[in-house]
Prior knowledge:
Layout: H1 10-17, E1 25-27, H2 34-43, E2 50-52, H3 56-65, E3 70-72, H4 76-85, E4 90-96, H5 101-105, H6 131-137, H7 140-149, H8 155-167, H9 174-183, H10 194-205, H11 207-214, E5 222-232, H12 235-248, E6 257-259, H13 269-274, E7 282-288
Parallel strand pairs: 1-2, 1-4, 2-3, 4-5
Antiparallel strand pairs: 5-7, 6-7
Helix pairs in contact: 7-8, 7-10
Amino acid sequence: xxxxxxxxxxxxxxxxxxxxxxxxxxxxxxxxxxxxxxxxxxxxxxxxxxxxxxxxxxxxxxxxxxxxxxxxxxxxxxxxxxxxxxxxxxxxxxxxxxxxxxxxxxxxxxxxxxxxxxxxxxxxxxxxxxxxxxxxxxxxxxxxxxxxxxxxxxxxxxxxxxxxxxxxxxxxxxxxxxxxxxxxxxxxxxxxxxxxxxxxxxxxxxxxxxxxxxxxxxxxxxxxxxxxxxxxxxxxxxxxxxxxxxxxxxxxxxxxxxxxxxxxxxxxxxxxxxxxxxxxxxxxxxxxxx
Length: 290
């Protein structure tokens, strides 16, 4: 399992969520089960816990690894609505909003700019919208807005890159798109296509909208004194979580949450060496008050 995906901030997750025997667990983005296995090894509540992932490859893997645990193969917002309707509550809830290593490493998924694959980027391959449609059919203005809003590129660079993308259409692969961006970029330590690929992926999977809709549902699924941990990988996600935690904890005795992490927890030097993808990970944790 570790060869498939190394869970980020694992020791920090365990330290702050403090799993105990017999506690129930909900994982919104279980992926390949790295966090889930560590937590369920402590709680031993395999039957009463739920693991969610909308990627069918991840869901199939989870079913093999956790045969008596409930596996839900759909987006976590829809899954949360169903769990609330069924009256489910949990002692621990975790969400890791990062892209899993297998998604990045499988060329045919189209997430990575360092390999040559189709312009796909769908976490759920049952959906219609793909990166190909965004790259080859969206207007220049729409692309520039996407690059600015979700890639956080400066306006001038976003406009220039959008113009280049439109000029080179049709673009058929991830490598072709990455090369177009690289040709118009100065040298940097990170690949110049990183933010553009991030922006397109966010749009394809409607990631920020799903997070924003889901956050207010989470306290409803927590037992009193239940812990909620959320791992983000870029500032747009982290801002949503930070604002939600602040609002949910700022109503005095009526507050639903109490924040346990005044500042987001980040990876230590050792983890950064063994898992470079953890460099942008941030963990925020809160506890259910009422």
